[in-house]
Amino acid sequence: MAIIQLGRLSEIKQARYVIHLSDKKRLVLFRLPVMDPSKQPEGVHRAANETDDGWIYYAMEAECPHAGGPMQDSLVEIEDSAYVVSCPWHAYDFNVETGESSVGIKACTFPVNVRGEYVTLVYNSAEGCDVSLVQLEPVSEKFKKKKDSRGSTPRQEVSPAHQAESGPVKYLDENATVCDWCAHILNTSNPEHKIELTAHLFSIFLEKEASSSPMPLGRGTVSPPAQPPREGLSEVKPWAIPKAGKGGTLKSRISMLHALANIELWAIDLAIDICIRFATFQTDPASQGFSQELPRAFFHDWLKVANDEAKHFSLLRARMEEMGSYFGALPVHHGLWESATITAHDLRARISIIALVHEARGLDVNPMTIGKFRKAGDAESVECLEVIHNDEITHVTTGHRWLTWICQEEGTDPVQVFRSNVRKYFRGNIKEPFNAEARTQAGLDGRYYENLEGVPLGA
């Protein structure tokens, strides 16, 4: 048995870390708020993994024992006064303290102790070999802030899009509902304000979700805009966007990053919009005779997607600035929002087209895009794009999870529901090449997308 020092309490402040050990094993460290002390039995003293200021630490294996999903990206919920984490790939749930699951399999968990000012891990190594900490890697939730103009290089300019809403970002008061916040974010045109507000909403939603006063949803109390505003950007039709080239030149790579940043900015709005536009959605079961409203986990999952998309936009925007450009330097299109408009009437169609067609298509092309930047020796951009690709696997998983949930409640087949919606609302065919490995990780096997045609382009 090894006692491994992970770091000082004063240094371990993020919610999650990946623990890299010298025996090549990877664990996840969770830092979670102590549950309401009033719910604890009388006479129970502070646990060994609990701090004086209200935090508690847990460690478990980093790969889901079902299919190897990344547990550092898991959803954290409270069930029966215990923290439970759900794998982002297939939603297998595990108690973070015991590793027990409702589906009969068990994850490995490891004792964590708070000893003075240090956090330590109790680890049983194979064959008694010495094991040490190689790295405590924070799970990326950071956003890259826009540089002050005084720190800009001479080649950089100020984007008109960032001048659209001058002044400080506007926050809502503590009584605002989830839908109030969603409408506010959707109506915010300044990209910097939008990413800051999105990160703030996800943060306060998580904080209140773990408390005795969860954030009110505000279902049906406020309406989203027909289309989020964009100011200071030159908009053209999708087919009028200049070709980016193959990434061999700086200009070509900037063009590719600019196009991706535009997609990520719309992706923030799409994830926020699904929370407010479909907040009152109820299932329509064919046989059970009753309907279900969307559970709170639905709003958590899509706010998490929005938070990721905001992080992605910040990474791409910052990288373009490092390369001497800025977001808004090139024309953009709003083709993604057109897909949102034609699916605004039906949550099943929205998930099918946005999450399981557009996002899944990103899984297909991302490796090729990353390869172009790697070939050009652009390691900084490769790092950003790999973060985005890994996150987007979980986004497709989120879409698959909620379409499957709806279909289970309604007694329908998610594959057939998906294919039917593609035939109605997606223009063109679902074309190869497919990243079958990434799609499978996200829950999409070949039944979903093989030999599938949408609406003919000339129709």
UniProtKB/TrEMBL annotation:
Residues 142-167, 212-233 are annotated as: Disordered. Keywords: 2Fe-2S, Iron, Iron-sulfur, Metal-binding. The keyword RNA-binding does not apply. Pfam families: DUF455, Rieske_4. This is Rieske domain-containing protein. It comes from Aspergillus coremiiformis. The keyword Cell division does not apply. CDD domains: Ferritin_like (cd00657), Rieske (cd03467). GO terms for molecular function: 2 iron, 2 sulfur cluster binding; metal ion binding. Residues 16-121 form the Rieske domain.
